[in-house]
Amino acid sequence: MFSFIHAADIHLDSPMHKLEAYDGAPVEDFRLSTRRALENLVNLAISEKVAFVLISGDLYDGDWKDYNTGLYFIHQMTRLRAAGIRVFIVAGNHDAASTITRSLRLPDNVTFFAAGRAETVRLDDPPAAIHGRSFASPAEKSDLSTDYPAPVPGRFNIGMLHTCAAGRIGHEPYAPCNVGTLQEKGYHYWALGHIHQHEVLTRDPFVVFSGNTQGRHIREPGQRGCVLVRVDAQLEAGIEFMPTDVVRWIPVSVDVRDAQSPYGVVEEFIGRLEAVLSDNSGMPLAVRVTLSGESPVAGELAAEPDRWIGEIRAAAMEAGGSRVWVEKVVFACRLPEALEEPPAGGAVSELLALFRELGADPAGRQELAEVLSDFHKKLPRELKEGPEGIRCDDPEWIRDLLVQVRPELLGRLMKKGEG
Prior knowledge:
Mean pLDDT: 86
Oligomer: single chain
CATH class of the largest domain: Alpha Beta
């Protein structure tokens, strides 16, 4: 009968922090990726002849004053207007902070729901009722779903909401709500935003996070896109996830346990990478390689990290050409316990014991993070931003740092001792 697209968290022109500092990073491809993902979304809407497009918050990425970002968005919306496609938007936490959101005049096919209370737009063709409410401020902590109106009889009812739902790790607890409360509203579909991973919370009715349209760093791995919803004559819906991303972030884990030498680790990586390339056919990939497991080889790898990072990057270029960029190599592998303790003991043994104790002591890491918090505040902003930023006031970041640094430190110390 009709179809529509549910998208969210486009974060148009989101800055890719410190990409220039990465060796061989395809900087321009990444900087343009959110725009190209939006183009893919618009192309999909036009090719599928959808009735309308929903954007459930965080269209922009904060208070960007470059109006070219907004003008680019308007250009894409005029393409949809020419195809007879309407667009409905609720503001999320990033949009509420945006100067662009408040000041640019949008084409007449775009409806931006107001803040303060839920509003309803009734459509006759197709028979739909769209209910939405925007964030009034960037840090909305109240349950916005409570004042959404009753469903409109005889129409396919959709609720648009930017929310953390019951909460997700890595996302601010904005506009929390109970999924059961959403179900009780009697709508056919809830189009949610804010959580960047696609997720179907319930199917009766559909309560769905579309996820973001383009991954922006390694903490947003795998396919990213939108949801295509098809509605039949009985107002029953079916959904299909549709990728829109143009660059994909992929973690690749390599187990070193069976490797006989560092070159064996590189060979294992090549095998894993070939599988990843096959699973993501034709897609440019940003890969983070994590070497894990217990093996005597861990010491050799950690003793010359730059050399083996170079070997892994060279292997990636050979296997994938310009399609693959190794963003980082993480040395999380370790020596067997029997080999880890230097025979001489002394300062090296004490240092390793400290690493072990701190790694196994959450309270100790919390105390260390509190001690370092003042130091963290004094760091230049550029050192704290982005996926590789220093977060020494975070106990989990300290834990991950211990895992990464310990084998490298041991390898270097033991190699020095051999000389």
